[in-house]
Every structure is written in C-alpha cells, then in structure tokens.
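Fold this sequence, please.
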Amino acid sequence: MNSKETSEKIQFVSNDLPISNPEGKPQNTPTTLLDQQSHDSQPKQHTDIELPQEQLFFPLTEAKYLTKEETEQAYLKRKADGLYEAPEILKDEVLDLLNDSNVKDITRIHLQRRSIDDNDVASLASNTTWVNLKEVWLYQNLIEEAGAAALGRNLAWVNLRQLWLHRNEIGDEGAAAIAANKSWVNLEELYLSYNNIGDKGAICLSKNQAWVKLKSLKLDNNRITNVGAVALAENKSWVKLELLWLYNNRIKYRGAILLACNKQWECLDEICVGGNAIHKEGTRAILCNPKLKKLELSKVQ
C-alpha cells in the first residue's frame, strides 16, 4: 500500500486484537488514525492518535482499513446501533447526529460527563421516533430542573430501561417532573443520587404508578428526611424493586422501620441506609427483615 493510498484510509480497531500497520509491521496497541484531510483543501499526512477503548468511536471486531465511503457507511451503522460514547470534544457533533431525522433506531445514548446542559437535554427529549431506546446515561453533567422537566415530558421512549441522571442538580422540581412521566412503563433502573432532592421530590417519586418493572432506585446523597422516606415506604407499585439506596440522607429510625416493612417490595434484597440517623431501632428493623441479604449500614448514627 503506497503513501497515497494510505492517506485515503481511516483505521478503526478494537482493543482486543493485534493489528498491523499499512507496511505489515505488527503493533502492540490499538491506534485510531484520524483523517486530517476531510475538511482541508490542502493534502496533509495522517496523525496517529492513541485513545482508550471508551473513546474509540467505532470499535470494530477486527482490524480493517476503510475508504472514506466505507467509513461513512460504518458511521451510519453505528448511528443506527445507537451507541454514542464520544469524547467530550465531539459533544456538539454527536448531538447534531442524534437530532438527525434519518436516525430512527437508537437503542442507547451514553453521554455521561460531557457537559450536557438543559438545552442539550431538551433537544434530545423532544425526539418522538426513538421508540426502541433502552438506555439513557446522562450522569455527571450540568442538568438542572428544566432539563429534567424536558425528559419528563417525553412520551416516545416507551421501551426505556435505564435512566441514569446521578450527579446533576435536578432538585425537587426535576424529580417531580421525572416522576410525572407515565410512558416509561418498562423502566428498570432510575439513578438520581447527588441531585439535591428533598422530601418533595421523594414524595412525587413515591406516587408514580407506571414504573411497575422498576428494579433499582438510587437516591443516596440527597436531602431526604423521614417525611420523604415514609412516603417512599408507602409505595405499592414497585413490586419488582430489588435495590434501594438512600445512603447519606437525613432519615431517622421511623423512616428506616417503614422502609424495611414494605410488604409490596417482595423482591427487595439490597438496601443502603448508611449515613443516616436511624439509631438502633431502625437498624434492628432492617436486620430483622429476612429478605434483605445485602445491607449497607455504615456510619449509622
């Protein structure tokens, strides 16, 4: 393969297979060769950039040199597959792609730690065609109440299984907006840790009756007191709940006792209430529940 041919190729590789460069010399680590000519009028040489696996935008199962046309086809296929784990520098490009009306079969959106803000979320949540979407990971971004409200208004994602929003700042109003959604009837995992959620948000969440398949609910490191814990304990819809995290809130023993005694949560076997002032009474109630196999009671006061 001559240098001219090389300059018209882009290589995407997985990190589990040895590869060879165009001259046939083996390389020990996967490398992504980014085409530097696509937007420049003057020809340039390729630059080798080594990226960790999570930043390989098209990790293929085997090494292959692709022409520009083949690369574009692979790009469209990855869009159709719905897996977006781009480096932060590609955030705007990825959002543009997600808003492409021709992309209709998205199954996963992974945009964690990408400085996603309320406007970005509103753009995503306005989509009405991704009926097969199953995973939305938006944790550790810049999402506040307005972004959560936009998500809550979405009625198209009827197959959504995972909504990970931890380490944002959605607050009570954002939690209430999420709780008001009645379309996510297949939701299994809802992560809202570190979101400045208090009793109002917890009460709204407890009243949701659509999430009958919910298995994991994480509300640790918020501002929930006994009031919110009691409301959660009164929920009768989450009959498949297996995991409940309320670590490092402001819950006292009465809330812990009622959480441990919820008879509708027959599948619950993991509860985390460490970092709360549940005292001996609350600790005893949890320890006496034979269904609870995995307990987190550190820093109990």
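Confidence is low (pLDDT under 50) at residues 1-66, 82-89. Residues 68-81 form the longest helix (14 residues).
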